[in-house]
Amino acid sequence: MQHKFTAIAGLASLCLFLSACTEEDAPVTYITSSGVISGFGSVYVNGVRYITKDSNIIGNGNKSDEASLKVGMKVVINAQKSSDFEPTAQDVKYLADAIGTVDAIDLANNSLSILGQTYLITQATQFDDTRFSELRTDMIVELSAFKNEYGNFVVSYLAIKDAQTEQQLTGTISDINKVNKTFTIGELVVSYEDADITGMLTSGSLVEVKSKFPPINNKLVADKINALGLLLYIDGLLEVTGIVEDFDKAGNTIIIKVDGRKYVLSDATDFSQGDKDDLKIGSQVSLVATVVESESITDTPNYPVNNIRLELANEISLEGIVELISDDSFTLFGQEFTVDNYTQYEDDSEQDLRNFNFTNIAIGDKLAIDAYEDNGVLISRKVDREETGGNDQESHEIEGVVDNIDLPSFSVKGIIVLTNEETDFEDAQGNDVDQDTFFLKLKEQDEVEVELTKIDNDWLALAVEIDNGDTELLGTIDNFTNRFSFTVNGHDVVTNMHTKFENGSVNDLVLNAKIEVEGTVNSDGQLVADEIEFIEINAN
Description:
The N and C termini lie far apart (about 65 Å).
């Protein structure tokens, strides 16, 4: 493996040398980019558009095409950039971090366990035709993820796979036993006695493991194992998105660890969306570094960082109709939201444009967006275009932090929401309250969920609740004991005399009824239902 990386570095140096000698135009910059796809029209990764017209696209080790790539997938791109032209991708490689059976789901902590690893679901997770509340154990899923500071993984993309899918795991080797021919990845024991192996297996190696069969008693018998590494070019650029796993500061120099590599930040490093004081273990960052020397399996250099962007936490999610459009922003609910090169786009409308981006947004479009604030500007992290209902009086949704209260109204990131005696109010304990009681309990910085509609030129809340971090579950009743105890998607659900019902009554709780449950998880792991909405009632 060490020889392989040395050969790669030597080849890169040779390529640069030949390019400098033979090119009449500006010199070529070689780029290795590892990050999440944010859009198409070629491929957007780490805020950069890569031309993919003639690219070699590989998906999970097999020849593929651009149509197989999805927003949220983590890819590695090897590219060249000349002068001011957009970089051209020679290779675009997607490798799932896990393909396997869901062993456990933790509703309270928004996580799932697959192949001995814990994967965390966040608001940024991109789901492909499913959502977290619909998942169940024994499903096979495919996902992309970033390792966090605790050794768990934050999911950027998730899709449900066919039951016959091969098991696959990407991870770092530990506890290798060359006598028994086993090693561990996280909590999973891997046997490689009969595996087809490419590269060297040592502790600390990043590998891809494949097996025709799921693990038994937490032991996976591998069919294929590939040692992994990045193709890096001396004096080229390395662009990476990930989570800071380690942090060390000495004077004006900071060394951070992201995805197993160390990066050096100095006074020459440019910061955006924050500065050195905002950087800490657990921060999600996107950075551009210079490759100063080759790396090997036993020695990884420190890469000097040219610029780094801190990814800020989401502060508002909403669904509404576009009222105005400018050069780089649109207006919803009278509030302006900008976009940047990192904004993720998805088109779930009837048009279903794969290359959907800001230029396709029109006044009257219905958008669902997640956004955060930087220096007084609201920046869109995700933009999903949805199908409009064609009804001017249809309701819309806002979820975010209250920044001002002026009875009988309040505002969420500058969006003023009016209330009246017809508004349905719910406090943080899930109790129905009147307007006066609600405003006595409401405080600035509380997170609220609002359903609202436009009346004249104002936005009136039809319903508003103070968010208490309730857990949601969507699915069918698959085991029914009685009205107080049943399971949904294999999860235990219990009701009580305080449980509220919408679009049905307690008598509609029957086997195979499709419901959405909102509540809290108790110490026994049961979801105690505060509210149940009937999506589809079994006629029997």
